[in-house]
Amino acid sequence: MLDLIAIIGPTASGKTTLAVALAKRIGTEIISADSRQLYRGMDIGTGKDLAEYTIDGTTIPYHLIDICPAGYRYNLFEYVRDFNIVYADMMARGKQPLLCGGTGLYVETILKGYSLPPVPENSALRQSLQDKSLDQLAEILRGYKTLHNTTDIDTCKRAIRAIEIAEFYSRQEPELLEPRPMKNPLIVGVNIDRELRRAKITRRLHQRLEEGMVEEVKQLLDSGIDPESLIYYGLEYKFLTEYIIGRTTYNEMVERLEIAIHQFAKRQMTWFRGMERRGHTIRWIDASMPTNEKVDIIESWIKEHNQ
Q: Are 249 and 243 in contact (CB under 8 A)?
């Protein structure tokens, strides 16, 4: 059995449909690697499309979807912890672990086998940082690590937490944090033509708006979730919340959201190409091929790996 089969690709590439068909063919279950499908009640905006998990009358079991309430801020440590629990259970039952999702950070962290012990709150450190500006906090964080993106420093609160984590890890024994990479994974990337991807994103956005995406966000706000908590999740929840609370018009929201999703898909592909540069072998498969043909090809790769 392979350590892991990972089906990755940008949004609208059809990776879930492919993973479900493959899971049915080889008799297994799917572990999600999507950082927003974790949240209950955030269905249309995250594109859960749970009906896709039923194929030819068979419902494929899935994991790490709908596991925490909307408004909660789930983190990478929690994902690694929860993935490892599901992974161990599947291996014990003889089920081939099949990971599917577009959150490259989650996928790569799992493949690299990083150990992420929980980081306790450091009250003294937080006290010493609370009056510093965001620029000052960013400079302190750079002293610990290279900043590959801006997510750690988009607010002072997040920057302080990032420093707290970096400080904690800097004091751990190296063996504790030593990664244990998966030795025999199969990583399948769904490669979709740029123009086809853009067309699918646009079509899917308007379809989801018609399906009630605005109403979904209104319900979340009506349930007591703070607008800033929804804005934190980005993309659909950011732009729809800003529209609902009156910061933008409907047309402005749709236009800005469509641009943002296109940019997001581009960033996903940039991450996956970066994974290749960092030593991961990704076998790319054409998104436009019939699903059965794609599954046939992946099955041949599985047999090749298992020889």
A: yes
